[in-house]
Design brief:
14 strands; 7-stranded mixed β-sheet; 8 helices; 2 domains; 5-stranded mixed β-sheet; Fructose-1,6-Bisphosphatase, Chain A, domain 1; D-Maltodextrin-Binding Protein, domain 2; 268 residues; alpha+beta
Length: 268
């Protein structure tokens, strides 16, 4: 099976993803900073009619264009996961930001070929920024090539995580370990932080309790900009990964951060 980087329909897939992001951006903005009905899912995370409506439209368009492709999303059951090509989607990554009026939420779109995410889109509707990563090509921001800062030392790095609330006690201790060694730490951003990493503004991201629809689209974007993204053991991310994510602006920075984690007694 060919990867998307050599697959004859690569351009069609990429163009479709861009068109899909155009639709989702427009839909999201019709709901943003408007009164919404909020429900709690089984894991107590919030969901709104915006999440559900946008994902339903994404699924409709994917199924219409690629009826044999699988779909894995946040709000509905997975479909056709036996297919060699799977779209992994998150209609609103950063629902808490979305609900509180913060313009840092985004839509995530990934297309996997035989389990490998070869196409990824991070689209931020309020700001109009869109990062696109395609394996074997340079990541772009709104069509222009972008790259990470290339910083190599943890002492010089700007460290981000979405929220300390997302860590368990061990994970929070690991984050504090990195924080003590980094130049600066900041919170928030959800998927936006990974776009900022790809554009050279953020150097290191460290998170846990993510799902495939939270991280699959990030992989081609980060890697295509010169960064490294893995689990906390340094292993490649897959659909079966445990949701512990570390992304860095360079391979040396990634290696130093992992070494710092492994040197602590609480690392597992």
């Amino acid at each position: 099976m060919q990867s998307l980087s050599t697959f004859p329909e690569t351009d069609r897939l990429a163009q479709f993803a861009q068109g899909l992001a155009d639709v989702t951006d427009a839909m999201a903005m019709t709901y943003f900073r408007k009164p919404l009905e909020i429900e709690a899912k089984d894991d107590d995370s919030p969901v709104t009619q915006a999440d559900r409506a946008i994902e339903a439209e994404m699924r409709r368009q994917i199924t219409q264009a690629f009826p044999t492709h699988g779909i894995l999303g946040e709000e509905q059951e997975s479909a056709r996961l036996e297919s060699p090509h799977i779209w992994v989607i998150d209609p609103i990554d950063g629902t808490k930001s979305f609900l509180s009026g913060m313009p840092t939420f985004g839509t995530l779109i990934a297309c996997l070929s035989d389990g490998t995410p070869n196409l990824g889109v991070i689209s931020i509707p309020p700001t109009g920024e869109r990062w696109t990563g395609q394996r074997g090509q340079r990541t772009t921001l709104n069509g222009a090539p972008c790259q990470t800062s290339g910083r190599t030392a943890l002492a010089d790095a700007i460290l981000y995580t979405t929220s300390p609330d997302n860590f368990d006690a061990t994970g929070l201790a690991q984050f504090e370990t990195l924080s003590e060694k980094a130049a600066m730490r900041r919170f928030g951003g959800d998927c936006y932080g990974y776009g900022l990493l790809a554009s050279g503004h953020v150097d290191l991201l460290f998170e846990m309790n993510l799902h495939p629809y939270d991280y699959m689209a990030l992989i081609p974007v980060v890697e295509g900009a010169g960064g490294v993204i893995t689990d906390w053991d340094g292993e490649p991310l897959t659909l079966a990964s445990d949701g512990k994510i570390i992304a860095a602006a360079s391979a040396p920075l990634h290696a130093e951060a992992l070494a710092a984690l492994r040197a602590t007694a609480s690392f597992r």
